[in-house]
Amino acid sequence: MKIEELFSVKGKTALVTGGSRGIGYMIARGLVENGVKVYITARKAEACDMAAKELSQFGECVSVPGDLSSMAEIERLADFIKEREDKLDILVNNAGATWGAPFYDFPEDGWDKIMNVNVKPVFFLTQKLGKLLEASASHEDPARVINVASVDGIHVSSLETYSYAASKAAVIHLTKMMAKFLAPKHITVNGIAPGPFESKMMAATLAAAGDMIKASVPRKRIGVPEDMAGVALYLSSKAGAYLTGTTIPVDGGLATTV
Hints:
Layout: H1 3-6, E1 13-17, H2 22-32, E2 37-41, H3 45-55, E3 61-63, H4 71-84, E4 90-93, H5 108-118, H6 120-128, H7 130-136, E5 143-148, H8 162-182, E6 187-194, H9 200-216, H10 225-236, E7 247-250, H11 254-257
Parallel strand pairs: 1-2, 1-4, 2-3, 4-5, 5-6, 6-7
């Protein structure tokens, strides 16, 4: 029951997609600082390499740039990990994008891009890395898949981000589906639904309406890196081993009480 053992992730290996910034970077840093070897991927190679260099100050982090909206890139990333690791303990499916437009102007490419980035890799990257996850999994210490959704998949956003909201609701239900069928293989699948956090995706929104957003959150603040790292460490550690098929809102009460 000691906290050092209950929440320890030391010695594990993880892959965090979209790990060069925002939520993914927060999760990657939390894992790296606590003894996890972390691979991060992102669409922009320079940003991915720079983030890995920064994170390597705290532990072991490897950059693997790639655009996971493409099946070929999903397979390339999976093959890269398979060539270097015999097992994978933690997979964080975080890579995402958003798109906003008025209802009558919303374009098809704004729909397809978001679904391809936010939903497709969650399923297919987990599928391609499934055997590596199984190799690390045991009855006592399951492998972990963590899917990053959003509170916009739980409540109705005030922004016209139709494909984004639909994609994040899809991630939440897909998390349940995968959890059901991967549980017998000793792989847990859970989600995190962030509310407002400081990130590139949220930067414009916070710049335009940051005070109003803070006021609307019951906790009266924006999320900080420790909030995100904490829940990821919980889900990745012994403390979270009996949890599967659920999505935890990390939102100061925004989607759950307002």
